[in-house]
Amino acid sequence: MLRTNLIRAITNPKSRTLATTAVVSQGRTKRPTATRRTDPPLPPPSLDVTPISQPVFVSLTTSFTGNQDVTKDNVVALDPTVFNHPIRRDILHLCVTHYRDSLRQGSANTKTRGEVRGSGRKIRPQKGSGRARLGDAQSPMLRGGGVAFGPKPRDFSTKLPRKVIQMGMRVALSSKVKDQRFGIMMEMDWPNAKTKYLVQKIKALGLKQTLFITGEREIPVGLQRAIRNIPLVDITTSEKVNVYELLKWRRIMLDGKAVDFFEQTLGKKSYLSFPVEHVTSTSVSLP
């Protein structure tokens, strides 16, 4: 092999190497890739969706008119995502502070030295009197002068995300349910506008210090006239109620439309819920 290379180098001067010619390898044959094991496809989701958590059962309360015969076995199944939410004291604090900030008037106003009436004349010469230096009569150091860094009209309201307010409503409603200060009556109507008879009815039902919440857009006229003169009792609509009012009152009482309103606006879309009237006839033994 060496002799052959020497002869090739002599006969071909341009060749400057004595190395053997490289042999181009054809490369390794590519092995066929193994087929991956695929899991069988999952079946399509069923239409019979069951709630992840159990609903909350609350006993019904006799209405003002007493048209419906309500017993202790008549209960209402409530959405647990609305009426069984974990208690969050921080969220309640944020919602209450947000509401009370919006109630502040913010109209306090004082005049600065530039707004007080009077001349800008210097009271006495700068030197020669031996007394303190003074400027004009509107100085904050003098009686009748302006106020230094006094309050001015401003807006004290704060902003809070909508989802935080909705969570606050869930927590407030759930706290009333857990404390057993929550009730439901199917309808709130009082055809007789007399306050005297409504006081007797509220006393018989034991609903003193109660906030009544109706799902109607407007409060029934007869009930509003009769209840507005009763102390420690008030009524509002489900659209106007807020976290502060839910926590302020000792007990809250909802009607069927108010329950549907809260479940539609505050409930999770994944939970399967039914209108209140569909479950009122079901008798469930409470623990």
TrEMBL record:
Molecular-function annotations in GO: structural constituent of ribosome
A Gene Ontology cellular-component term: ribonucleoprotein complex
Chain intervals for the UniProt region annotation (Disordered): 21-48, 106-148
GO biological process: translation
The protein, known as: Large ribosomal subunit protein uL4m
UniProt cross-references to NCBIfam families, sorted A to Z: rplD_bact
Keyword Ribosomal protein belongs to the record: yes
InterPro entries: Ribosomal_uL4, Ribosomal_uL4-like, Ribosomal_uL4_dom_sf
Source domain of life: Eukaryota
Family affiliation: Belongs to the universal ribosomal protein uL4 family.
Organism: Dendrothele bispora (strain CBS 962.96)
Keyword Lipid metabolism carried by entry: no
Keywords annotated in UniProt: Ribonucleoprotein, Ribosomal protein
